[in-house]
Amino acid sequence: MTTEQFKAFFPSVPPVAGVYRFLDEQGTILYVGKAKNLRNRLASYFGDKKYQSAKTKALVRHAHRIEFTVVETETDALLLENTLIKKHQPRYNVMLKDEKSPLVYICIKSERFPRVFVTRRVVRDGSMYFGPYLHKSRVDQITDLIRRLFQLRTCALNLSEQNIARGKFKPCLEYHIRNCAAPCVGLESEEAYRRKIEQIKNILRGNFAPVKAHLKEEMLRYAENLQFERAQEIKEKIALFEDYQSKSTVVNPNIQDVDVFALVADEQEAYVHCLRVVNGAIINTYTLTLKKNLDEDPSTLLSYAIDILRLKMNSQAPEIIVPFPVAAPQGVKVTVPKIGDKKKLLDLSEWNARQHQLQQHQIALNRAQQQTQVERILTVLKNDLHMKDLPRHIECFDNSNLQGSNPVSSCVVFKNAKPARREYRHYHVKTVEGPNDFASMEEVVYRRYKRLLAEGQSLPQLVIIDGGKGQLAAAMKSLRALGLEGKMTVIGIAKRLEEIYLPDDPVPLHLNKRSESLRLIQRARDEAHRFALSFHRDKRSRAFLHTELIEIPGIGPKSAEKILRHFGSVARLRQASMEEIAQVVGKAMAARLMQYFASVSAEQKEESTP
């Protein structure tokens, strides 16, 4: 994504908390991030490149577009970011090797005497999970309250009726310090244990009234039985519970598993946004765009979109929240909230739908403006070069070599004044030896257009040769041999004065240095140079590793590369002392190298002796 494209997109980004996504041309998510202020965070990616990491530069270069979702708080942003990263595993996000989640849950295990513990993993084995909770300290506070209010087991023993009846277990230290009522030896019944678990569920759901009533009932029962010490303990637990209740911030405890849908529409399109809410947290979001063919009723549009989105998000939520009554799937409750937390979720979904609508309108406007700009640039270029047709398809060639070694060439393609990178081509120069740019250009141009003719592909309107009269004449020689002279406009550009050469015209054409057409020609030339140079470097690197050193037993490609990077060549390595080599690769490998060079020298002496 270019800086110009981002500047056009930037006005549609709101200065609020949210989650953003970088996507490539195929729609694959490259990176997911969260932000307290979306506008400021996204702007930082397109600021001063000098202070950006190589990873950030690569991300921006490969991104084709940006999407974002607005949320209410930073906590919601973190929850959604974590979910999207786990689901899509974007290339540029950091992945934890142990898959540890920053979110924690409180689990009530599905077993005869259920344990209650903190976990980061959700296992679908019938157990109940509460959360997710963002802060571990908050979870510790809740679990500490549960531990102090109720005596629960912490062991993982199999407390079946048979095992308990056979006396397989003995009370542990937790029983003796009064943290557990020892159901393992039958000192607590399953029914009494289950009653405690029900109260724990009420705490985790935020239903505090039944818990308080249960504790008061226990306190009165002990008092009636004259067990005043136990009654006092329960009274202290009630005070502890009331203190917790006054500070409780359980995450949206009343909203367990719902889908929230909002719709905004204009004359041509409708946008339906969905928030997937599970256990009080937004775990996914999606916006569906519908093309309106008729004057459809909003209720009809929303009902149609709900079916698609629930299927796409694999949702089985028993409740949907919508702005107006709709026909819902069978067995699904429809809620049209007017106030409260559900109304806030609906407003948030509608806000996201409007932001998406604004973004799409901005994209359409930018596309129209860019198309107008492209037409203008191509028209100027056509007039400057006296062409018959608009140069919608441009190809540019360049050579690269180092003192004649590893000669390569490149062909880059521009369509509608933009790089078409999938159509770029590299060429190994096959028939030329030594530094001969003219012969290299002749070979590559011939190979390129011979193949296009053989495959029946369309020819470009404009061909740019990086070089002056000599390179241009070499290219024209190949085009004449193929019978393509006059079927394409061919020019050469000399780098020193940016002169444009035309075939059979000894006088160069000088375009205005600020001309948009010259800038397009320069851009294609620079891109061809970059592409050829990168290929040449790769080829040199491979040749660099193809050395006699890797033929020595015990020396691999990495060791050979390390040695040659230090000494520069095998010839210099031969002249180095044992101590110098040992400082680079160690004594054992240095001895191996010295032994090899000694044997090679002996063989050469024998061959030279008559």
What's the gist of this structure?
This protein has 610 residues and is an alpha+beta fold. It contains 19 helices and 18 strands. The chain has helices at residues 3-9, 38-44, 54-62, 74-88, 136-149, 161-165, 173-176, 190-205, 208-224, 228-247, 298-312, 341-384, 437-455, 469-481, 516-545, 557-567, 570-575, 578-585, 587-608; strands at residues 18-23, 29-35, 65-70, 104-108, 116-119, 128-133, 257-265, 269-278, 281-291, 319-321, 333-335, 393-402, 405-415, 418-419, 425-428, 462-466, 489-494, 499-501.
Report on this model:
The chain has 610 residues and is α+β, with helices and mostly antiparallel strands. It folds into five domains: 3-88, GIY-YIG endonuclease; 104-247, no CATH class; 257-359, Nucleotidyltransferase, domain 5 (2-Layer Sandwich); 393-542, Nucleotidyltransferase, domain 5; 547-608, Orthogonal Bundle (DNA polymerase, domain 1), CATH 1.10.150. The chain has helices spanning 3-9, 38-44, 54-62, 74-88, 136-149, 161-165, 173-176, 190-205, 208-224, 228-247, 298-312, 341-384, 437-455, 469-481, 516-545, 557-567, 570-575, 578-585, 587-608; strands at 18-23, 29-35, 65-70, 104-108, 116-119, 128-133, 257-265, 269-278, 281-291, 319-321, 333-335, 393-402, 405-415, 418-419, 425-428, 462-466, 489-494, 499-501. The strands form four sheets. Strands 12, 13, 14, 15, 16, 17 and 18 form a seven-stranded mixed sheet that branches. Strand 17 and strand 18 form a beta hairpin. The model is unreliable at 96-100 and 246-251 (pLDDT under 50).
